[in-house]
Amino acid sequence: MNSLSSGRCRRLLAAVFLIGIISLFTTSLYAAQVTLQWDANDPAPQGYRVFRRVAGGTYNYSSPAWTGAGTTCTISSLLEGTTYYFVVRAYVGSDQSADSNEVRFTPSVTPPADADGDGYTVSQGDCNDANASIRPNATDICGDGIDQNCNGSDQLCPQDIDD
Fold first, then answer.
1. What pLDDT does residue 61 have?
2. Sign of the CA dihedral with 11 first, then 17, 20, and 24 last
3. In which residue ranges of the chain is pLDDT below 50?
4. Which residues contact 118 (CB under 8 A, 6 or more apart)?
5. How far apart are CA 100 and CA 119, in angstroms?
């Protein structure tokens, strides 16, 4: 790896003085992700590389977790309870800065209590927590093949009932 000139390295490293924001998001599958943001360099480098490691591990500088020209990135597929560490390096061609300040993140993923916001959870009998119109006590539309009220079957239409 080539090293940047002293002044250029200082400028690159000063702007990469890392990570202002870390936020946790969950997806419907409850996989964790982290969004990292840092200050831009002036002058702008060719791009930035984000490296990650797990607790007790080392950074693999030949395999960045993210590469791009922006100053925000999202790293996905993080495991709950695993502690991750991140650093950023600015680069121009094959030259790159030293590591930014290191940040630590441990995802704690809790599935949403009521994913669709209808007031019912799966444990309270919501048979489709991805659709707010399907929940206990909802009006069931007869003959549409959908169990809107979560009673175990679609409502029969009056004309389909034998007297």
1. 96
2. positive
3. 1-3, 9-29
4. 126, 129, 132, 133, 135
5. 45
Tell me: cis bond preceding 64? Omega within 30 of 0 counts.
Answer: no
Torsion, Cα 115 116 120 124, to 10 degrees, reads -50
Strands (E) located in 47-150: 47-54, 66-68, 72-78, 84-92, 95-96, 103-105
Q: What is the pTM of this model?
A: 0.54
The span from the CA of 124 to the CA of 126, in Å, is 6
At 38, the amino acid letter reads W
The identity of residue 145, as a single letter, is G
As a whole number of angstroms, the distance between CA 159 and CA 154 comes to 14
